[in-house]
């Protein structure tokens, strides 16, 4: 993947910051251009629309998440602890865009970005519980996977290894393992 130009990277950074503080819908491209001291046409050169900008921010999360799930699905059998640890690591690495996804769910759903993320939980549930989980198994998987995401956002200042251990152990407990 080519490295974005300095201006493009500055636009992405400013947009992430403004989207996080103001929300996607309340942040105009003019707000982003003003923050950077560039013209709106200069911003349009790199991103023809706000939707393109949002997709550019979320795409690394989508690519990394899909890569993680495909690798797990390609293995004959992935130990549940390894899946849970990998899902924690993925969410910890992508805390900022995950927070944006949650805060801007209707906007991102309109862009078709939420379906893929929600599909990951279903696929992970099947990897953890098998292709036809019981309601009990599926509910426990939702608690475990959702809890892992929440922990990554709720405790941003906690020491990583301590947080990882507590989160993974809690998720395994929720799964009854």
From TrEMBL:
Residues 28-47 bind DNA. This is TetR/AcrR family transcriptional regulator. GO terms for molecular function: DNA-binding transcription factor activity; transcription cis-regulatory region binding. Pfam families: TetR_N. InterPro entries: Homeodomain-like_sf, HTH-type_TetR-like_transc_reg, HTH_TetR. The keyword Transcription applies. It comes from Amycolatopsis iheyensis. Keywords: DNA-binding, Transcription, Transcription regulation. The lineage of its organism: Bacteria, Bacillati, Actinomycetota, Actinomycetes, Pseudonocardiales. The keyword Ribosomal protein does not apply. Residues 5-65 form the HTH tetR-type domain.
